[in-house]
Amino acid sequence: MVWNRASFYMVTGRPAGFGYTFMKMSPVLACIAAFQTFEVAFIGTKGGPAYATWLYGLHIYRTSFEFFEMGYGSTLAWIMFIVLAAFTYFQFRFSKSWVYYAGEER
Question: Is residue 78 part of a domain?
């Protein structure tokens, strides 16, 4: 099968739609990264003085692997998954009203 490379790459060197897909995914990825922040709090302070850097990911880790409450830890992880899935759904659902791209129809 022969691909029409000029239309696929649109003579720019990258696949068509690449920039648009990344632009729509960036708020979703930022939201997911914010919820999954773990390394800085764990390595730097392990929760910090008076739980100053106690994050949800750190709570899941300590519950599961330091206190060995695997059932409760997995429940917390499922709750985190459901919340992130809901945020992702709503961001994709309402992202059309945030930005107007010149090539789109309203």
Answer: yes
Task: For residue range 48-72, list pLDDT tens digits in order.
Answer: 888 888 989 999 999 999 999 999 9
Is 53 in contact with 44 (CB distance < 8 Å)? yes
pTM value?
0.66
Report residue 30 as tokens: 């930022």
Both tokens assigned to 88:
């992702």
Number of independent structural domains in the chain: 1
Q: How far is residue 18's CA from residue 70's CA, in Å, rounded to a whole number? A: 40
User: DSSP label at 96?
Assistant: G
CB atoms inside a 10 Å sphere around CB 45: 14
